[in-house]
Amino acid sequence: MSPARPRSNLSSPALPSFEEAAALVAACAARLARLRPGPRSSGLAGPYMERVPLHQALGRVLAEPLLADADQPPFARSTRDGFACRAAEASAHRPLAVIGSTRAGQTPSGPLPRGAVWEIMTGAPVPAGADAIIMLEHVKEFDAHVEETCAPSTRAIRLLPLRTIRKGEHIVARAAQARKGDKLLPAGSLIGAAQIALAGSCGCAALNVFLKPRVAILSTGDELVPIRSSPGPGQIRNSSSAMLAAMVSAVGGSPWVLPIARDTAKSLDAALARAAAADLLLITGGVSAGKFDLVEPALTRAGARFHFTGVRIQPGKPLVFAELPRRSTGPNRNQSRTKCFGLPGNPVSSAVTFLLFAAPVVAALAGQRDCGPRFALARLTEDVKTKTGLTRFLPAACTFSGAIPEVALVPWQGSGDMAAMARANCFLVVPEDSDRLRAGSTVRILLP
Ligand code: AMP
Ligand code: MG
Question: What's the pTM?
Answer without folding.
Answer: 0.87
